Automatic annotation (TrEMBL):
<keyword id="KW-0472">Membrane</keyword>
<dbReference type="GO" id="GO:0016020">
    <property type="term" value="C:membrane"/>
</dbReference>
<protein>
    <submittedName>
        <fullName>LHPL2 protein</fullName>
    </submittedName>
</protein>
<keyword id="KW-0812">Transmembrane</keyword>
<dbReference type="Pfam" id="PF10242">
    <property type="entry name" value="L_HMGIC_fpl"/>
</dbReference>
<feature type="transmembrane region" description="Helical">
    <location>
        <begin position="183"/>
        <end position="203"/>
    </location>
</feature>
<dbReference type="InterPro" id="IPR019372">
    <property type="entry name" value="LHFPL"/>
</dbReference>
<feature type="transmembrane region" description="Helical">
    <location>
        <begin position="132"/>
        <end position="154"/>
    </location>
</feature>
<feature type="transmembrane region" description="Helical">
    <location>
        <begin position="96"/>
        <end position="120"/>
    </location>
</feature>
<comment type="similarity">
    <text>Belongs to the LHFP family.</text>
</comment>
<keyword id="KW-0278">Fertilization</keyword>
<keyword id="KW-1133">Transmembrane helix</keyword>
<dbReference type="GO" id="GO:0007338">
    <property type="term" value="P:single fertilization"/>
</dbReference>
<feature type="transmembrane region" description="Helical">
    <location>
        <begin position="12"/>
        <end position="35"/>
    </location>
</feature>
């Protein structure tokens, strides 16, 4: 018989696992890893409402995507265009970024799998006499290692020609040049830290769902067990 067991710690671990997976996925897909040097203003950058020059635009560059501003000569305005600059994996600007993409993708796939499985831990707590929480915690630890490898390799690619075109001639491996780090990079770092927190916290979720109070309520014949 399936017993639905919901505790404060198990629910927190589930929600945190889902948040971490989505945060890493959004960061990976974003083009805001590097913020390039400002493009100088021109006569086309005049704000039609105020008649003043708009602030200089900072193009952004991701692992495989970029955002830049394109002009519409007919309408005398500019729009921001975001999309992949690489049509396939081999066109990613740097071999280090290719390795980063592989490691991050592997870590994110594991995190998404754990996030999906975590939803069902309310009803199924073990498989083949092994705790799902412990297995998921181990997988999250492995995913965290993949994410760390990807984040360490990413700055090594700052010397590629694509990065130099955004960050200036002084950009090189582990040197930003005229660029600055975007929110996607910081989100990926934060998600990596939370991944290891999830891995450790999975043990607490296991303890909470197998406590004496839970066992007592199961013995009383309850199918839905909610404990703080």
């Amino acid at each position: 018989m399936c017993h639905v067991i919901v505790t404060c710690r198990s629910m927190l671990w589930t929600l945190l696992s889902i948040v971490v997976a989505f945060a890493e996925l959004i960061a990976f897909m974003s083009a805001d890893w590097l913020i390039g040097k400002a493009k100088p203003s021109s006569s086309e950058d005049v704000d039609n409402r105020t008649g003043r020059l708009q602030e200089p635009y900072h193009p952004t560059l991701g692992i495989y995507g970029r955002c830049t501003r394109i002009s519409h000569m007919q309408f005398s305005r500019r729009d921001t265009l975001c999309g992949p600059y690489a049509e396939n994996f081999s066109e990613i600007a740097s071999g280090f970024w290719q390795a980063t993409a592989i490691f991050l993708a592997m870590g994110i796939m594991i995190l998404c799998t754990v996030a999906f499985v975590s939803v069902f831990t309310m009803c199924v707590q073990s498989i083949m006499k092994k705790s799902i929480f412990n297995v998921c915690g181990l997988l999250q630890g492995i995913a965290g290692l993949f994410l760390i490898l990807g984040l360490i390799l990413y700055p090594a690619g700052w010397g590629c020609q694509k990065a130099i075109s955004y960050c200036g001639p002084y950009a090189s491996a582990y040197k930003l040049g005229d660029c600055s780090l975007g929110w996607a990079f910081y989100t990926a770092i934060g998600g990596t830290v939370l991944t290891f927190i999830c891995a450790v916290f999975s043990a607490q979720a296991e303890i909470a769902t197998s406590s004496d109070k839970v066992q007592e309520e199961i013995e009383e014949g309850k199918n839905l067990i909610c404990l703080l």
